[in-house]
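Ticket #345: bound-state structure for iron/sulfur cluster.
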Amino acid sequence: MTENFKDWLELDLEEMEATMVALGESKFRARQLADWIYKKGVFDFAEMTNFSLALREKLAEQTKIGMPNLYSLAESKRDPVKKALLELQDGEIIETVLMQYSYGNSVCVSTQVGCKMGCTFCATGQAGFKRNLTAGEMMAQVLQLRDQIDGTRISHLVLMGMGEPLDNYSEMIKFIKRANAAWGLGIGYRHISISTCGLIPQIRLLQKEDLPINLSISLHAPNDKLRSQIMPIAKRYPIDDLLKALRDYTDQTRRRLTFEYNLIDGVNDREKDALELAQKIKGMLAMVNLIPLNPIEGNNLRRSSKEKINKFAQILNDQGIETTIRREMGTDIDAACGQLRGKFL
Ligand code: SF4
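RESOLUTION: The complex was predicted; output attached.
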């Protein structure tokens, strides 16, 4: 095998067809191969029994299916959550989480090795940035986790793992289009959620795509002063500009946004913060998801008390803002983004 090998996971169907033709095969072999990979979860050419021996050998000699190694898999004892550490082909380690809900199986995908955004409450942000993931490496995470539940269908995707998805825009878009495609994973756009810390130019690009995906915004504070203390990105994109871009986004897509708000004791959880937040987002096609902070090592940020969380939610609800409190899942296996990898490294 040479390093320059075509990795089938990096190709869409048309590119797969062109590759088959370049290999001297018929175009329709591409769809058969896609079926093996995406429908049947078979990653070894030798097992692709509707291909001749000669074709199987040619595929193995000249191409590859770049699956990561499953380095470890932790299973929560309390929740239906599994968390994998995956080793990529260059040895980098990423996290991927599988959540088995009553309504279907959801995979939380990483989009970068590390993250540039440096949010102070986030283990991934504190560990720094290594590189972007390719669309194929995002896809491989879903396939690898699906394999751990014997190929049971994955119905939902959340791009909320390591990294800022919109900072790796073109690979992220390629990935969700392939995840949605009938020849790929066939996951409806309405079951795909992307979380961003608020990169305005990319939000505008996403608006132009006009895909019926779910968009979550990590807001975590009602004003720039507070926000920039915990999210450096707030210095680049002021909150009013961000909210303007989001209003434009919902005007076009008519898709409701979710504002994520990590409640940090004594930092952003005061009653006046809730009131200011309500004022800021009033009238927007959006809801708020309050998240009890998952404390990490290396800073002294603490989670707000249950009483404060409930009070914050009540103020928002009283102000007419639909608000939920996120149920915690998998805290016994460090399911918060970046924690498990941090321990491993
Ligand atoms: S919260 Fe998201 S954007 Fe912020 S550092 Fe962590 S991974 Fe990056």
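RESOLUTION NOTES: The chain has a mean pLDDT of 94.
TICKET STATUS: resolved
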